[in-house]
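step 4 of 6: structure.
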Amino acid sequence: MNIMGVLQKLALESGFAAFFTTDGGWKNLVMIIIAFVLLYLGIVKKFEPLLLCGIAFGCLLSNLSYFIGMGSNALYHPELWEAFLDSTSPYYHSYGHIMSNCGLLDFFYIGVKAGIYPSLIFMGVGAMTDFGPLLANPKSLLLGAAAQLGVFVAFFGAVLLGFTGPQAASIGIIGGADGPTAIYLTTKLAPELLGPIAIAAYSYMALIPLIQPPIMKLMTTDKMRKVKMVQSREVSKTEKIIFPIVVATFVILLLPSTAPLIGCLMLGNLFRECGVTDRLSDTAQNALMNIVTIFLATSVGATMVAQNFLNFSTIKIIILGLIAFSISTVGGLIGGIIMYKTSGGTINPLIGSAGVSAVPMAARVSQDVGRKYNKSNYLLMHAMGPNVAGVIGSAIAAGFLLSVFG
Amino acid sequence: MNDLINISIPTASGYALLGYCVVFFGLVLLMCVLLVMGKIMTSKKAVPAAEKAAAEAEPTPAVKADPAPGTAGEFKLYNTEPRDAAMVMAIVADTLGKPINELRFISIREVTENEV
């Protein structure tokens, strides 16, 4: 028995040695540090912790277990997915090849790749969302549309910076401020950018209370910010039940590529409102949502392997994401200012910034900023209208980009 | 397809503009649908309300009926949740030592910090 030989083999096969012996092993070390930082932001700073903790730990696991040329113990294998996407490979679109060679996180990632998790998350979001404020004031939809400006500006900016059309479309959708939509579109159009795009989307969503207020202050006057809005009309139960059926029928017929997202969003909302599926609504809101969040977050984090993440494109995506978010806020506020002018000053333009999806964080920011300038102002329910309109708007924007570049 | 992968700047600007217009078009159409739906629903609600008003206008017996036990009648809430209002009414009744159905509340309004 060659004890020294066995010990030497164990030492050389260890991840510690791989940091220094494998090609680009030091990059794994950098990614592990990034994972620690993300864990810190999620746990201590509470930046979207339900997602960021999973993403960070997925990143940690994949970079601890995968080193180039040492993939036998890896939880995630980027080369399997490269072959899956390569039309010249014999394993092109072969889930069988993935299943027979995969690690645990590859297995989770199948749900992302097939677009299952984002759609199920949308079902949970639908079950949790009250569309009453939107029904009480359908003009809110205009603000949800206006706030998609950042999607298309960032798309254009990404093309200017040298990204391909599908990559630019995936980067642009960060401006929709809707994580599941960004993940859904990116897995369809530019899966190689999934890690940085998901990180940018969720980080900026968490930073909305820091990003939006200075822009809101810059674009509106003191008089505008003090406008007190009248209470919206009461919405009947029947309207709330008909709404998801009408929206699903109408939007999917208009843009069939939105079917998975809008279909699941409205199915979840129907469960919530119809009054006869309380158990399903409860499951979609809680158990299903939590289970899917675990799988989605860890598998998205797993795609952050060193050789895919540590490059100049990631920095460009992070910058473009911030631009997309800011321009979307500007777009929503411009819409709000136009509505303020046309309504004779009865609409507070601050609700426009809530059009950037990110439910309910963006609506809360509108409420907080409005209350800062007028203590008796309650904008939350008024801002929820554009906020949920933004969810539909970003799904339509994603549907458009998917139908063009998919 | 290659044109879309290596997309030129004029083509990208065209798609960006078109995409924004499509989002607006979709949501404006949806807004119209919801406005029509809202009109139908509110008009349906208005019909029973009109019928109720007509019924109330009919001659009533000379003897006035007692108010329903426990009712507080109609009153207005300003920036106050119904739950908070119920608590306020209960506290007032308790402080005055009178049953709540013998008190008449006209309105409840939140007093803001500036007004205190």
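step 5 of 6: annotate
 - Residues 2-57 of chain B form one domain.
 - Helices of chain B lie at 2-5, 9-57, 82-96.
step 6 of 6: archive
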